[in-house]
Design a protein that fits this description.
The protein is α+β, with helices and mostly antiparallel strands. Helices cover 35% and strands 25% of the residues. The radius of gyration is 18 Å and the shape is globular. It starts with a helix and ends in a 5-residue tail after the last helix.
Amino acid sequence: MEDLQKVHSQIVAWLNEIVPMIKRSLSEDLAIETKLNHKDLVTDIDKKVQDFFIQKITEAYPTHLIVGEESPELKISDDREHVWIIDPIDGTANFVKQQDHFCILVAYYEGDVGKLGYIFDVMNDDLYYAIENKGAFLNDQKLLPPEEIPLREGLISADVREWYGKECFGRLAEESFDIRYFGCGGIDSIHVINGKFAAFVTSKAGPWDLAAQLVFAKELGLKVSHFDGSELHYLDCGDWVLSNKGAYSELLNILKGWNC
């Protein structure tokens, strides 16, 4: 078991070291590649940021396992005593097209228990982090659990491209206050964490998209699960929801119609 305060301090130092490089890159020519399709982008900065974290973690903790979005060759093993999950640039399309609404996601787990979670909103210099049994924080200011928001009064974040044409999307738009979507799961999650959104739902995710948020959910009393209500594991892929308690039950009733 690692000293969490020590690990936390290291992560904050690493983030403060790499963020200026990311901001400088916005005035430079980016090397952009596609992955699954022309809208699924990865840049040389994604790769540089992930390589930076891999180097730092490996130097400090050579026996720890690392799972990163841009390194599919990094496979998880059955020995999960210490696991790091990294999304170097969450919201790469926003990074390329808007130079805004993107973040860094980092999570640290011991024995499949979430210990530390980080969402760094790069352009706003806002660091959200959660520490097991210590709470969640924004720039070292402790966050209170968000007030419960019923679905009819809450903004819901959902990827319209994936939901368009589905009957359950019509229900979601009708029964919630309205739909919003930043195009970056970390930024959308921040808005649930601070109580501005009632929920964030997505049908496509990897461990790097949700591992940090699971730590926040535990510390703030938020609800997380798959669309069918089944338990969400930090190494899962596919659909998942992060929700305010007040909207969760009604939301799940709608989400169960996702495959219809």
